[in-house]
Amino acid sequence: MRKLAEHNIPLREASITQVHSVLRDGNPLIVHTSMFANALASLANPKQQQQWVPLAEKNRIIGTYAQTEIGHGTFVRGLETTAIFDPETKEFVLHSPTITSTKWWPGGLGKTANAAIVMAQLYTQGKCYGPHPFFVQLRDFDTHHSLPGVILGEIGPRLGINSQDNGYLRFDHYRIPRTNMLMRHSQVLEDGSYVKPIHNKLSYGTMVWTRVAIVHSCSKKLACAVTIATRYSAVRHQSELVPGKPEPQILEYQTQQYKLLPHIASVFAILFSASSVLRMQRNVAASISKGNVELLPELHILSCAMKALSSQDSTQGIETCRLACGGHGYIASSGLPSLYTSTTCTITYEGENTVLLLQVARYLIKSYRAGLEGLPVLPSVMYLTAPSAMHQSPPLSNQALIEAFRISSANLVKETESRLCRQFNLEQNFHYAWNRCSVALVHCAELHSRYYMCEKFLSTVESIRASDRVRSVLQDLCRLYLIHHITLNQGHFLRSGTLSGVDLSTLEEEMYELLAKLRPQAVPLVDAFDFRDELLGSTLGAWDGRVYERLYEEAQKSPLNKTDVSKAYHKYLQPLMKSNL
Ligand SMILES: CCCCCCCCCCCCCCCCCCCCC/C=C/C(=O)SCCNC(=O)CCNC(=O)[C@H](O)C(C)(C)COP(=O)(O)OP(=O)(O)OC[C@H]1O[C@@H](n2cnc3c(N)ncnc32)[C@H](O)[C@@H]1OP(=O)(O)O
Ligand SMILES: Cc1cc2nc3c(=O)[nH]c(=O)nc-3n(C[C@H](O)[C@H](O)[C@H](O)COP(=O)(O)OP(=O)(O)OC[C@H]3O[C@@H](n4cnc5c(N)ncnc54)[C@H](O)[C@@H]3O)c2cc1C
């Protein structure tokens, strides 16, 4: 926090710095500096911002974002916490009517936060208007005691991020002023009348913003993992590549290159996609402030798609890096286990991935149908009904591979839409039919998202002007990424007829050549991510390569090594040894 102040970084921008990485196993202030700060910036009106933002900036108020309940995370409309407007006192009464309405999970809620943005069902004049955000003080700002009517606690140990206090929260008819409803987009007036927003999902804006931030953070986490595993693979020597010859660096093995290089490529693919979505988000935010919400659905879908793909890719990539380090990847001091546990949760939070991919699929099907009817569709999905352009590029060129992705994605949407129609004819109910097609629908969303990511990777690399040498290496890396994902999805390309069996064999050959060509670039590429050793926090991945010395030094810090004979010997082992059991 002192560093942020020194560099004049406002709170709402803190989460895009590396401040969150200071604590290895979760940061209790992450939701304060990210979601809470963003909710104030985007959901509060100017008067409310004047009131709370300076206090939050000075960390007098420490906030969290309390939406999820034990009973409902995904289905936001199903939240049970109520905020009922009392026109007599001009207050909202917050209440948790059931066990399932208990707020559950918010980061920092257990012990750190003294305030929260609470999402609750808004009732006024006897009518429910759905989930709305409220600023709620939870603890006394001086004593930190929870306030009467507020029941708070921590939810217990988790798979990871255990230095963050994820919490629970219940309200017992807890009263807050009317003006604590965040009123930038919708309002409840003094007489209780409701003023609706220009788009009814604007109150979900903080989730959209966070999904975009998560895409960036996934690229950073994966970059840390590939840095550790690649440097280690250059230090580690094992086995014989040629009998009788010295043990090679494990990075010489083609299988090791196959484990690492596609994930190094993935760091760039995710980062370039994140930058593109961030640009879109800034444009949409500017339009919203002028009253234009036309592009909001597109941003929602793109952020869902990229959050889902990047969290899945980075989690799998980090686990592959861990396995690529053999036994030493399993030790905590390698840094890889905590990278994994603090990344796998991004698959679940801020919208569980399957659920987000189904949102994308819904948009694809709607856009496809609209396109067939000649209705206008947004640019990112025009390709679904646009004529094929496969023949325009040289065979198997980068552009041809992108076109193959595009046509295969359009083909899959077309096939799945037909299946949906057939299923609808059988079921006579759209929702049952949708559920019976949902595995295929998720595949549609994944292929569309991969197409977007590949396209962003290629177009960004092609636009590099600063250095021909850098562009050339990144072109190879991008080519590897395209071919790698084509080989992983061969079925889609064969089904759509965009690539033949012979094409796929040719591409596979090229992939093996690229692994060898890129091998000398592996260490320079990860060095260029430029992580300080303190930030990597890894015995295996430090810049100087002193892996074995660091492992040994770190072992000396184990509390069990403070004495030669441990207490457990006297307490348990010795009695056991003497017991003749
Ligand atoms: C360029 C360089 C920049 C520099 C950057 C460098 C960066 C480097 C480092 C970066 C580090 C960053 C670190 C920050 C990380 C931050 C981590 C913070 C920690 C997070 C902790 C976790 C918090 C949480 O999890 S909070 C709780 C989140 N909960 C959810 O996400 C719930 C998921 N569910 C939903 O969102 C919805 O209910 C949903 C999407 C499932 C929709 O449900 P539905 O049944 O369809 O219902 P409905 O709501 O009625 O929708 C109908 C309609 O509306 C559309 N819709 C839905 N949502 C939206 C939306 N948000 N916006 C617009 N439209 C929306 C939906 O698509 C439907 O449309 P139609 O089909 O047209 O009807
Ligand atoms: C580490 C961590 C930190 C968190 N921090 C916060 C926080 O700060 N604030 C906050 O409010 N929340 C937070 N959460 C909660 C998080 O947002 C939810 O857990 C998440 O949105 C998923 O909801 P759920 O747990 O209800 O899962 P569920 O929705 O119950 O998912 C369970 C399964 O059901 C499936 N499913 C659910 N609905 C559908 C559907 N419509 N179609 C098909 N399949 C479906 C899912 O795909 C999944 O396989 C956090 C969670 C974690 C793990």
From TrEMBL:
Sequence similarity: Belongs to the acyl-CoA oxidase family.
GO cellular component, one term: peroxisome
GO terms for MF: acyl-CoA oxidase activity; FAD binding; fatty acid binding
Principal subcellular localization: other
Coiled coil: none
Localization: Peroxisome
Acyl-CoA oxidase C-alpha1 domain location: 204-365
Residue positions of the active site: E350 (proton acceptor)
Lineage: Eukaryota, Metazoa, Ecdysozoa, Arthropoda, Crustacea
The protein's annotated pathway: Lipid metabolism; peroxisomal fatty acid beta-oxidation
Cofactor: FAD
Domain Acyl-coenzyme A oxidase N-terminal: 2-62
Record: residues binding FAD: T68, G107
GO annotation terms (biological process): fatty acid beta-oxidation using acyl-CoA oxidase; lipid homeostasis
Pfam family for this entry, one: ACOX_C_alpha1
UniProt entry keywords in alphabetical sequence: FAD, Fatty acid metabolism, Flavoprotein, Lipid metabolism, Oxidoreductase, Peroxisome
Protein name: Acyl-coenzyme A oxidase
Domain Acyl-CoA oxidase C-terminal: 399-578
InterPro entries named among the record's database cross-references: ACOX_C_alpha1, Acyl-CoA_ox_N, Acyl-CoA_Oxase/DH_mid-dom_sf, Acyl-CoA_oxidase, Acyl-CoA_oxidase_C, AcylCo_DH-like_C, AcylCoA_DH/ox_N_sf, AcylCoA_DH/oxidase_NM_dom_sf
